[in-house]
Amino acid sequence: MFTKANIRPRVAVVFGGPSHEYEVSCQSAANVLRTLDRDRFTVKPIRVTRTGAWIAADQAGSYHAMDVEKLLHLTRDELLEPKHRNGTNVAAAAAALEDTDVVFPVMHGGYGEDGTIQALLDLIGVPYVGNGIFASAAGMDKQQTKRLLVAEGLNVADGVVLDGNDVTIDEATKDRLGLPVFVKPARSGSSIGVTRVSRWSDLASAIELARRSDSKVLVERGVSGREVEVGVLQRPDGTVEAGPPLEVVLPHSTEFFDYDAKYTDASVELRVPADLDAEIVAQLHKVALDVFRILGCKGILRVDFFLQPHQGRVVPVVNEVNTMPGFTPMSQYPRIWKAAGIELTDLLTILIETAIQEDLPGRMPEMV
Length: 368
Known about the structure:
Layout: E1 10-16, H1 22-35, E2 42-48, E3 54-56, H2 69-72, H3 76-79, H4 82-85, H5 90-96, E4 102-106, H6 116-124, H7 133-140, H8 142-151, E5 159-162, H9 171-177, E6 181-185, E7 195-197, H10 203-211, E8 217-221, E9 226-234, E10 239-242, E11 246-249, H11 259-263, E12 269-271, H12 278-294, E13 300-310, E14 313-322, H13 332-339, H14 344-358, E15 366-367
């Protein structure tokens, strides 16, 4: 644990893991490692391989030189060394995290964003950046997110969940949802496995694609309207604030904000702050803070909306939440806070210091 005797808190940046978003996690971590304030923190990169082995960088040299390439691209022979062959366990993780004051789990998708690594870190007793077990698990599962938000009166897109071997939906449900629909893995991110379906004849193949990422599949009504995202940040003193809305503007050739649009398409425009009336911004901020509260979040959250026109007014519809947003050079969350005047180095410092303070007894978030 961090004590005043330590000159600098010791931060382990953990990334990778057995997830479909492995590469995104590595890209996020590389950006975090390049940007963290070395005058304020001692930093140790730890890569979790696709098979679950924990590999720590050489603290004596490589991280000072920011040589993250070796850590991100260890060879196959290195991954097959006996010490890596059996995957992770609590003892191996604890050994990798030795002499760590706080963990920054820059991990997306299953294992890293669904409460799994959070449970492991709680078991070991190491504080960490971001959300705890419940918020992570609930935020990762789109079905559970919707249930919690609807129970509090928030607007979400209508949809149906297919479990087991279901390969289609009945005609009454098709009539209710209409076209287009979006078919999504219920517990995955970065739009991996997502398909926009504009013909019911394409539904079965879309479900099959989604099932490659998750056995539980969500078929969701397409919501028309501007796509806007709001970042939420908790500061070390416990206050929680929402950042300026960011609008995603897609080229006409792109049907939706899919994986390529998020990470490789330079023609996608991210406008921040979005050109919105003050009343709409206030609505978005209120709902984003409500989502943070409802899910029991800590530290960080991004809430994605559609602004749906309805009877002469605009209704914010919550599309998805992200309990550990990306930190790649293209990612929306850092852009939101840069527009608010917080550069990435300072944003990372706030998140880490909040995690350290949150580990103290009696701390409760305070919405502003």
